[in-house]
Specification:
Layout (H helix, E strand, L loop, with lengths): L32 E3 L13 E7 L12 E6 L4 E5 L4 E5 L5 E6 L11 E5 L4 E6 L4 E5 L5 E6 L6 E6 L4 E6 L12 E5 L5 E4 L11 E7 L2 E6 L8 E3 L2 E4 L7 E4 L5 E8 L8 E9 L3 E8 L2 H9 L9 E6 L5 E3 L16 E2 L3 E6 L1 H9 L7 H6 L10 E7 L1
Parallel strand pairs: 1-20, 3-25
Antiparallel strand pairs: 2-27, 3-4, 4-5, 5-6, 7-8, 8-9, 9-10, 11-12, 12-13, 13-14, 15-16, 17-18, 18-19, 19-20, 21-22, 22-23, 23-24, 26-27
């Protein structure tokens, strides 16, 4: 039976972490509670950074599609992947192509749902959520092995945890009221589930919806929020997802530290959820909050109305337990939030589209950014993106 599916992608969320990782409170034993209905005073955090821009190589053989996303940044390598087209590009830190491959179709993948890069082992793990498989490649695209994700799981994110282990996040997009453990470790060798993380959630809200249109046709609504479940920075992970109130720090020794909790609950009547932002200078934690009321989103889309979900950025002072609201930033002012990137500690990175830089240059909007002002005349509107890296002092 043929079915018509309409997939609608809504807003990207983001996350970023820097420096070392403290206990949640320096004074007192109470866990900070973010009241998302409360007004907090504004606070602006400013940092000194070493800023650099790296144009990524553009040639007939190195052309990125609009859906290419930054996935990995280390001292030596940058990995960019296109979920739909299947392209995987690896660059050195001068922006020169190191290797590339595309193994979409055949024994490869349908989509590049998520990527985990074990640079030291020259292994790239690609999660194909459609086929429920993880395929392992070398940097040049040679397939090494593949294995299925564990039975009765819905793995949607994978992360390079250590030499032998991947960290997985599992979520049923159609929702469930069963008690589940969403985080677990699997073997890099064969995909065997080796250990659950001691976090349980009571309910997963639905974010994929399907309704019949006719006897042989249905319409689907899939809200892909790019929510930062498990953010990896160096050897540290922040565990945050739309179905649990408390946010945790996971360390390399597998210990868990609660960072804060939130109210109203993510399982309330009109849910909002906190996406973890960043820990800065061992003291400040950034938190991003937006609506997760996907049923409301479906209702608006049926009426052909936009679902405009406002994002509020909060700051938690880990020393005092106080919360603040961070003012919005504009026009190439980095908000220092990472979008699903495996990145070094104390580092921020993002891709700036070449056309946007050229357009801003022509309109005189780069006067406060000397580096971009010098770079803009040297790039073409059709070039590949420019990598921005900031290292916090």
């Amino acid at each position: 039976m043929n079915k018509l599916h309409i997939f609608i992608t809504i807003i990207s969320f983001y996350a970023f972490v820097t420096t070392c990782y403290p206990q949640p409170m320096v004074s007192g034993d109470e866990l900070p509670v973010l009241d998302k209905t409360k007004s907090y005073p504004e606070k602006t955090l400013e940092w000194e950074t070493d800023l650099s821009y790296i144009p990524l190589e553009t040639s007939e053989n190195v052309l990125m599609g609009d859906q290419c996303d930054l996935k990995y940044v280390s001292e030596n390598r940058v990995l960019v992947a296109d979920k739909i087209r299947g392209d995987v590009f690896i660059f050195d830190m001068n922006g020169k192509l190191h290797s590339k491959f595309n193994q979409k179709g055949g024994k490869g993948y349908v989509f590049v749902s998520f990527v985990a890069y074990a640079e030291n082992d020259n292994e790239i793990f690609i999660l194909d959520e459609i086929r429920k498989k993880i395929i392992v490649f070398t940097e040049d695209g040679t397939m090494l092995r593949s294995f299925s994700t564990p039975p009765k799981t819905h793995v949607i994110k994978i992360y390079n945890f250590d030499e032998s282990t991947l960290l997985c996040f599992s979520e049923d997009k159609f929702g469930t009221s069963e008690l589940t453990k969403p985080y677990f470790f699997i073997s890099k060798k064969n995909g065997e589930l080796t250990e659950y993380i001691d976090i349980e959630i009571e309910k997963v809200g639905q974010r994929c919806f399907e309704e019949p249109v006719s006897k042989n046709c249905s319409r689907g609504y899939s809200f892909t929020s790019n929510f930062p479940e498990n953010c990896k920075f160096g050897n540290y992970f922040i565990l945050a997802n739309r179905s649990m109130d408390t946010v945790y720090l996971l360390k390399q020794d597998k210990s868990l530290t609660p960072l804060f909790t939130q109210t109203p609950s993510v399982n309330s009547e009109h849910p909002t959820a906190a996406a973890v932002g960043m820990i800065i200078h061992n003291r400040f934690l950034k938190i991003c909050v937006s609506s997760q009321d996907f049923k409301k989103g479906v209702e608006l889309l049926k009426k052909k109305e936009d679902w405009d979900r406002e994002v509020t950025d909060y700051i938690l002072d880990l020393k005092t337990g106080e919360f603040f609201i961070e003012p919005k930033r504009f026009n190439f002012q980095a908000d220092h939030t990472i979008r699903r990137i495996d990145i070094l500690e104390n580092t921020y990175a993002e891709l700036n589209q070449a056309w946007r830089i050229v357009e801003s240059y022509k309109r005189g909007r780069l006067k406060d950014n000397k580096l971009l002002l010098e770079l803009a005349p040297k790039i073409d509107i059709q070039d590949n993106p420019v990598l921005e890296i900031q290292k916090f002092k």
